[in-house]
Amino acid sequence: MPRRSPLYSQRSLVLVLIALLGSGFLATSLLSYYASRDSIRDSIVNTELPLTSDTVYSEIQKDLVRPVLISSMMARDTFMRDWVVAGERDPSQMTRYLNEVMTHYDAYTAFFVSNTSLTYYQAKGVLKKVKADEPRDAWYFRVRDMSTPYEINVDPDLANQDKLTFFINYKVYDYQDRFIGAAGVGLTVDAVIKLIDKYQQRYQRSVYFVDAFGRIVLTGADGGPQGARSGQSLHELDSLKELLSQLPRPHSGSYEYNSQGQGHFLNVRFIPELNWYLFVDKREDGALNSIRQSLYLNLLICLVITAIVLVLLSAVVRRYQRKIEAQATLDSLTRLPNRRGFDLLAAQALQEAWRDLTPLCAVLLDLDHFKRLNDTYGHLAGDQVLSGFARDLQGCLRQSDIVCRWGGEEFIVLLKDTDSSVALGIAEKIRLLTEQQRYHYEGQPLQLTVSIGLTSLQAQDTLHSLLSRADHAMYRAKHTGRNRTCVEMPHSSHE
Fold first, then answer.
1. pTM score, whole prediction
2. Which residues are catalytic?
3. Which residue, of 134, 162, 188, is where some domain finishes?
């Protein structure tokens, strides 16, 4: 069968490369597309939605700063403290004071609860007496017993048709730092609703608040998911079944779910001031259109690049082919031929021996207890010993001899034009030199020995049968005490 011409082989290589590069670039483009898609999805989930949550949270905090300052001023007001200490003689004075605060600072409501009489004062007059066993009065006794100076709480305002209100409840002390009541102001949640609507319109995402039990407590003007209103539970919404399987109870984090065939990205953030969870939800549609166009452009670019690469590659391959082949046949640590390089050199040596009728001996060497050395001193020490042994081994041989690293701590030598008796002398020389040699690593002298197997080329030998006998002899040397040379008998066969 005629051999293929180098030109034909080169054309075949180019066709293979075209196929490989084409499929590679196609795979790369698709992977890039999916990576970009995942990156956008990750950006939405981990950056955009949390940023919106942070912004809404900051706006809420900003809207609450002024009422907190007003409440703090009320708690330190000398009139209020003097009036309470004097025995709360004229309730109308407190009513006028609270009305003035509410009017001047444009608050939704202002209040004071006396710890002495348990009377609830507000701008319109005395509202009620607070009671410990009344659930709606629990907030006062919680404030009385808390360690912090104030709290922000959301409750229905009894004085204003139970309208949902942000209350700033501030503790009031007399001049001897004794607790005498709680004062503060309230503001309507309408401002927060307007804020929610603003951000829903600006960022095209849904914003709503949920309590710790999964009930919607605050939404934009158009409601929450699927128009849900305050008071509804998330569990009542069929469209959120997949989400609730991941999030049976509100918990801070980022989530992905499908609702009515549409992908959604969700960020949940806990707001400790309100004991609520802020939900920021964005639909997936429209977010990935741009990267699809990028995919088509990327495929075109990859096609052009493939053509350019092939032109350059065909020029470079021939220039560096020999250099690459040489590097591929050398062991990187010892700079000796590796197993692949040995196969090429050994085949040539066998042909020369048969042609010239000259003797040829194979020597297989294995460093004794090398694993123990690695375990004791580390692999870097082992590498240094291997490099040093390779140099010593080359120093004991002629330039015409073939020596390579067979693998691990094993080396193989082919002694050209050398009979078994001379080869045995060379092997013993190597063994004795190794025994006497000291390899230093970080100031520590390292000593080791070598077990050697030796055999000579026989009639009808193949490289495999020759090396098989050398291997058998080497293992016999290791099993009979190590640090010795064993010669395989000329007519033995171990394949």
1. 0.46
2. 409
3. 188
